[in-house]
Amino acid sequence: MSRVFVCNCFGVTEAQVKQHAQDGACTPRQIASACKAGTDCGSCVRRIQALLGRTAQPRGEVRERRDTAAVLAAEPVLAKALDEAA
């Protein structure tokens, strides 16, 4: 069985990201909240976006749920990577 890693920093696989998406995570921030993918170096954020089948949202769109705010406050690298992707 071949594992395709999305986030090497935390060892998160493509299958895990897809499972979190099936469980209701629909943004990279929600994926980060679920498994930390994207919260270290941030290089996997665009891959996570692709797996979720979405492109970067325009600025000013409705913000994510409040539970992800705690992740972003604790993980400024993710916030920076997501801002750059937008």
From TrEMBL:
<dbReference type="InterPro" id="IPR052371">
    <property type="entry name" value="BFD-associated_ferredoxin"/>
</dbReference>
<keyword id="KW-0408">Iron</keyword>
<keyword id="KW-0411">Iron-sulfur</keyword>
<protein>
    <recommendedName>
        <fullName>Bacterioferritin-associated ferredoxin</fullName>
    </recommendedName>
</protein>
<dbReference type="InterPro" id="IPR041854">
    <property type="entry name" value="BFD-like_2Fe2S-bd_dom_sf"/>
</dbReference>
<keyword id="KW-0001">2Fe-2S</keyword>
<keyword id="KW-0249">Electron transport</keyword>
<comment type="similarity">
    <text>Belongs to the Bfd family.</text>
</comment>
<keyword id="KW-0479">Metal-binding</keyword>
<keyword id="KW-0813">Transport</keyword>
<feature type="domain" description="BFD-like [2Fe-2S]-binding">
    <location>
        <begin position="6"/>
        <end position="53"/>
    </location>
</feature>
<dbReference type="Pfam" id="PF04324">
    <property type="entry name" value="Fer2_BFD"/>
</dbReference>
<dbReference type="InterPro" id="IPR007419">
    <property type="entry name" value="BFD-like_2Fe2S-bd_dom"/>
</dbReference>
